Every structure is written in C-alpha cells, then in structure tokens.
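for the recovery benchmark. tokens below, seq after
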C-alpha cells in the first residue's frame, strides 16, 4: 500500500515538473544521454560508424534530412521497435534502450530533432562484407530482434523512492552495462561490470565518475571515459545523485 501511494505521489510530482508543451532543450539532453549525438553527430547529419570491408561499411543516417519527412508517430515507432515505417529492420541501433524512454522524454527528443536544420547528404545503406553472415550465426541480431529478445530483462526495482533513479540508469547506462545492469556475462578486464560496482563510490566520487568518465583514483575506464562525459553532460547533479542512490539500493537486492 505504501508503495502504491508513493508511486502515485511520484507520478504527480513528475507531472508538475515536466513541461506541458514539448521542451526541445530537454530533448537535446535526452539526445546526449541516449548517444544519438555521439553516433549521428551534433548536426544529426550522420557519419561512417563502421569501416571494415570484411564485416560491414555502415553509416549512421542523416537524421537532419530524414526526420522532416516522417511524422512524430513514425519516428517514435521506429525508435521503439527498431523498424522503419517500410518494415525494414535497423542495424547497430540500441533500440532496446530507446524503447524504454518515457512518453515525455520521447516527445521532447523528437521536438529537439525537429529544430535541427537539414544539412549534408543522405548516406549509402549498410553494405555487408563476408564476415557479416558469420557474426549473424553467432550472437549478432538486428535492432528489432535484439530489442524484442531483451525486453523482459529490466533492472531490479527498489521501490517508489528509487523509481526515477532506476529509470535514469536504464536510459543512460544500459547500452553498455546491459538491460538489467548486470554487465557483461563474465566480464573480462575492461568490460562493463555489474553496476553494483557503484556502491564502492561515495556521492562526490560518483559525480566525478560521471562528469569525467574516470574511476576511483583517476582510473581510465575505456569506453566509459571516452563517451561518458559527452553523454552524461545531459544529466543534472540531482539526476546523478538519484542514479547513485538507486544503484546503492539495488546493490543490496539479492540477484535472482
Ligand atoms: C551506437 C550508435 C547509434 C546510436 C547510439 C543511435 N543511433 Fe540511430 N542509427 C545508427 C546507425 C548505424 C543507423 C543506420 C542503421 C542501418 O543502416 O540499418 C541508425 C539509424 C537511425 C534511424 C533510421 C534512419 C533511416 O535511415 O531510416 C533513426 C530514425 C535513428 N537512427 C535515430 C536515432 C536516435 C533518435 C537516437 C537516439 C535516441 C539514435 N538514433 C541513436 C547508429 C546509432
Ligand atoms: C559507452 C559505454 C558505457 C556507458 C554508456 C556507461 N558505462 Fe560504465 N563502464 C563502461 C566500461 C567499458 C567499464 C569498465 C571499464 C574498466 O573496468 O576498465 C565501465 C565501468 C563502470 C563502473 C566501474 C568503475 C570501477 O571503479 O571499476 C561504474 C560504477 C560505472 N561504469 C557506472 C556507469 C553508470 C552509472 C553509467 C550510466 C550513467 C555508465 N557507467 C554508463 C562503459 C560504459
């Protein structure tokens, strides 16, 4: 019962803080957190993301030219499903993360994309090399199939007080730390660990971790150090604290 009341109070609170009209400034922060800007560029004009003739030549799409041709519903459906309006599946898009965006965050993200002027050219479609088929036989899946497979895997809930922190961790960390935040299966050194690791950080050190991408003692954390700062600049200090509180609470929940 307490939880239910807490949840009602929380959704009321988020109704009052979120703007009743689309907020493109907040939408840009979501684009940073989700890595849309890391992968599609600040001007959303796309670039070469994979250049290995044996495996694939892949461009991130020029969204600045594409979004004006799609209505909001088509953009949202594509982002949540991993399929374009013509039914074709996308590759290399972390759809399983984007599928979790709240209605408000999705609305603001689309509103921001519509403010970006069209520049550049459309890029060629994905070109598969001989190793692509080999990767398919192993673990690789298109974004729609992957999202459907990972949909049941969500991070442990830690009560209404931590609902917001849990949501933020899901949309900001799960691309690398996994949909349930358990990290790589048997993490080798350098791979993303279970986010129970956050419990080793005090609030100050955790803020430094997300602002600089560096671990305790200034440790280089590879991709986290490389991409963290440009993504997490979209998170406020309060949001970083909410993520931390949730991850500490989650670290006390026995793993099922
Ligand atoms: C890890 C890199 C990566 C991230 C993060 C990413 N994208 Fe993409 N995106 C791609 C690639 C690569 C393609 C081209 C997919 C293909 O060719 O099948 C693509 C395609 C798309 C398409 C389909 C366009 C078309 O050509 O039909 C849309 C829409 C899109 N991205 C929007 C977004 C948005 C919005 C975000 C953030 C919420 C985002 N992407 C985050 C890499 C990424
Ligand atoms: C672009 C990929 C990426 C994203 C996004 C990402 N991480 Fe990481 N993270 C990593 C990698 C890789 C490591 C392991 C690096 C190592 O041990 O060398 C790591 C390690 C960590 C560690 C362990 C640090 C230590 O002291 O060993 C914590 C805690 C952490 N990440 C928190 C987060 C949180 C919280 C988020 C979301 C707000 C996040 N990460 C998002 C890639 C990422």
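predicted aa per position
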């Amino acid at each position: 019962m307490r939880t239910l009341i807490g949840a009602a109070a929380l959704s009321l609170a988020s109704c009052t803080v979120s703007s009743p009209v689309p907020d493109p400034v907040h939408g840009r922060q979501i684009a940073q957190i989700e890595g849309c800007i890391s992968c599609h560029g600040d001007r959303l004009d796309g670039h070469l993301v994979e250049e290995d003739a044996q495996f694939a030549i892949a461009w991130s799409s020029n969204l600045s030219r594409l979004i004006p041709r799609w209505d909001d519903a088509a953009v949202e459906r594509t982002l949540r499903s991993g399929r374009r309006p013509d039914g074709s599946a996308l590759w290399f898009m972390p759809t399983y993360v984007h599928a979790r965006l709240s209605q408000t965050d999705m609305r603001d993200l689309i509103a921001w994309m519509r403010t970006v002027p069209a520049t550049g050219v459309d890029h060629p479609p994905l070109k598969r090399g001989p190793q692509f088929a080999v990767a398919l036989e192993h673990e690789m899946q298109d974004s729609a199939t992957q999202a459907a497979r990972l949909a049941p895997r969500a991070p442990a809930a830690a009560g209404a007080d931590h609902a917001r922190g849990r949501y933020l961790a899901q949309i900001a960390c799960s691309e690398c730390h996994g949909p349930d935040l358990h990290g790589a299966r048997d993490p080798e050194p350098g791979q993303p660990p279970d986010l129970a690791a956050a419990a080793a950080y005090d609030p100050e050190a955790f803020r430094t971790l997300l602002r600089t991408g560096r671990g305790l003692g200034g440790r280089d954390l590879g991709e986290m150090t490389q991409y963290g700062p440009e993504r997490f600049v979209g998170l406020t200090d309060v949001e970083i604290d909410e993520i931390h509180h949730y991850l500490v609470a989650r670290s006390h929940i026995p793993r099922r």
